[in-house]
Every structure is written in C-alpha cells, then in structure tokens.
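Box S1 | Example of a co-folding query
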Amino acid sequence: AKHVQNNIQMTEVTMSTSKHDAFWMPFTANRQFKAEPRLMVSAEGMYYQTEDGRNVLDGTAGLWCVNAGHGRKRISEAVAKQIQQLDFAPTFQMGHPLPFELAERLVKHTPDGLNRVFFTNSGSESADTSLKIAIAYHKAKGNHGKTRLIGREKGYHGTNFGGISVGGLGNNRKSFGSLLTGVDHLKHAWKPGSEFTKGLPEDGAEMADELLDMIALHGAETIAAVIVEPIVGSGGVFMPPQGYLKRLRQITEQHDILLIFDEVITGFGRVGEAFASNRMGVTPDIMNTAKGLTNGAIPMGAVFLQDFIYDAFMQGPEEIIELFHGYTYSGHPVAAAAGLATLDIYEEENLFQKALQLESYWQESLHKLREHGVVKDIRNYGLVGAIELHSSEKFGERGYKIFNHCYWKQNALVRCTGDTIAMSPPLILEESHIDELMNALSKSLSNAL
Ligand code: PLP
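Box S1 (continued) | Returned holo structure for pyridoxal-5'-phosphate
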C-alpha cells in the first residue's frame, strides 16, 4: 500500500500544473522561460507573429535555417502534395525517386568531388554519420588503426555522443560520462587582437600547425579525421583566420587524414555562396549539412562525401551491404520534397548571390554598433554577424538581457550565446530590414543593461 501511496505522491509532484509544464524544452532555462514564455504562433517573410500579437523581425532565420524566409508556399505545397502521394517508403533495401533526385540536384552546388550524399534527419545525425564513415573508410582501405578523431575547442557538432565527443563546449559534454575515447581537440582558432575585424582575420593561419604536433604525438597512422566548423557558430561565432582552413587542408592531405567541415549553419547561402567551402576555396573530404537544406520546414540533414570515399566502400561483393548505418527516415519523401522546393527557391531567386551583395551593407551597419561602450568585439562574414559584449560578473547575463529586451521591447529576434549576440537573418532581407534590426539592437544596447 505504501508503494502505491508513494507512486501516487510521485505522480502528484510531477504532474503538470500549467499548459507549459510537460514539454521539457531543449537548451532552455525551462523555469525561467515558463515564467514568461516567448511564443511565436505564425510567420511570414522576415517576421514572426507572437502570441501577444506583435510582429517580430527574424534576425536569426529561426535557428540558422529559414534562409529563404518564412511561409514559403512553394515548400508547403510541395510537402502537402508529397504527403498525399507517398507519405513514407523505406530507403533500406527499397527506395522512392525523391532522394535520388534531391541528391543529384544538391551536388550541383557542392565543391568539386563532393558528389555522394548520405541523408540524415538533423545536424547531429550528420555529425555522427560523418565520423562513423571516416573511421569505416580507413578500415575499408585496410588502415585499421586510423580511428582517432580530432575536433576543436569551442566546436559544436550537435548533441549526439559522437558530436559532443569531438565538440569543444564544456557544458554540452560534462554531464554525459566518458564520451568517445581516442578524441583530441585543436585549440580554438581566434587570436586576441583580431577584435572588430571585418570579414576573416588576417592573423592566425599558423594555428593550424598545432595539428602537426598532434600527428607527432599520436602518429598519423592513428588519426582518422579532423572535424571543424568553417565558422564557429554556437561556440560564439568566430571566423577562421585567413589561410587557416587551407593549412588544415594541406596537413590532412599530406597525412591521409580526412577533413570534415560541419557546414550545418554555413551551408545554403549563409556566407554568400552555396557553402563556406566554396567561398573560402577549401574543399573538405566530407561536408555536413542540415537546417537550410529544407529551409527548416521539415527535419533533414545531408552528409556530402568525396567520390573516393564512396568508391572505397564499393569494392567487395555486390550482395553485401557496404555500410551498416542509416536512419528510418534517411531520404524521407516529405523531407526530400521540401528540399527540392527549397532548392528551387534558392536557385530561382539567386539567394546565395543576394547574400553576397548585401554583405557590405550588413557589415557596415553592424560595425556602427561599436560606439556602445559595452561592445567588446564585432565579427561578420556573409550574412553572419556577432556582437560580443564585455561580460558582467555573471557570464551570459548581458547577452540574455539584450536578447530578451530585443524580443519584448524592440520586436526583433536575435540569439545569445553567452555574452555574444549572434545574427543570421533570412537571405531574403532588404537593407531596410538591416536598418530595423540594427536600430533595435542599438536601442537594446542603450536601454537594457
Ligand atoms: N553542427 C553545427 C555546426 C550546428 O550549428 C548545429 C546546430 O546548431 C548542429 C551541428 C546540430 O544540428 P541539429 O540541431 O539539427 O542536430
């Protein structure tokens, strides 16, 4: 009876008392949010509509994903049509036409050689897929010892075990046990003295040479891959020093180490070309994407692989499954339909080029905020922007205050990561939206702290 009573007591304690209690929100201070929920109920173009009836300018493309702007009928109609025609079909030992078509269309935009596509459902799954394929590739080539993975401090590669193991954000790792073994981290590639650089810092390419030290320490014969974000996103929005990624490319190539770029946020036009790899002129062996692939409308990710990697798996007997990996929803028909419609929009509206055209206006507007004394640094590239604030005693407090003030008082959505305000607007924006966003930020910087 006591047991039952305990159960009843337990139930009473944990039962929802408000309509917001049941949903355990990801990466959110749940109790703080639920005390004053920021709820958006619809969206169109550059704006969200909030539950309390305001229009809020989207300065973040949702979460770096709604690159073509909100409410795109072309996508919703394609999704509706597809779900009626073929809601689901497996891609394990079966197939349907759409992911084949989407893959062919996508590789027209990727840098040379990245012609093979493995579909996932998120950036986190793309990260773990890329790491597994990297290790399996070396094994397929007979290099069984090449299993070590190298990530980087401040790196973010989603939240699955592989991604947090190579990731370099302490908060995302430290509650979750011992993680993957055989992982090392390069130093974060940003140098003090680079503050207020417009575009990529000139100084710091040599920081890539730390990889040579790791090779000396562990032996190249033990290292499978190096994974980095071309632009660090969640870790605070840091641009790579000029030449840094090229140097990583040279070293990895010399030592038969695969180079993985996580382009989950930099992909699909964010930096003014299809991918940061295109614009920065460095081609990785594996490139991870998600988010902008479907304009955020339906979950989907894609890992792009060099032909030579795919070919290495295609050597054995034809009846043998070459890679024991995949997801029920890899290449899901509805997600693929969303992806195709999204690509139509990007291509027809030249949105990647549009981002490039707007870059200098974006840059100059952003850097005007330097006049606020609390601003410690401003960083930008493509349509990415970051304003780092001098921290108060409590790290992250000022960032949160600006974000919250922008949302409630200035009708603008920005993101905060620690005391850095991150921005990544939809690529459809006009100069007037940039003015509106900067004006909102300026007022928050004056009034919120
Ligand atoms: N990789 C990078 C660089 C990201 O910024 C993110 C998400 O922000 C991810 C991976 C994880 O993507 P998802 O949240 O879709 O799993």
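The longest strand covers residues 114-120. The pocket of pyridoxal-5'-phosphate is lined by residues 122-124, 127, 156-158, 229, 233-234, 262, 264-265, 290 (CB under 6 Å).
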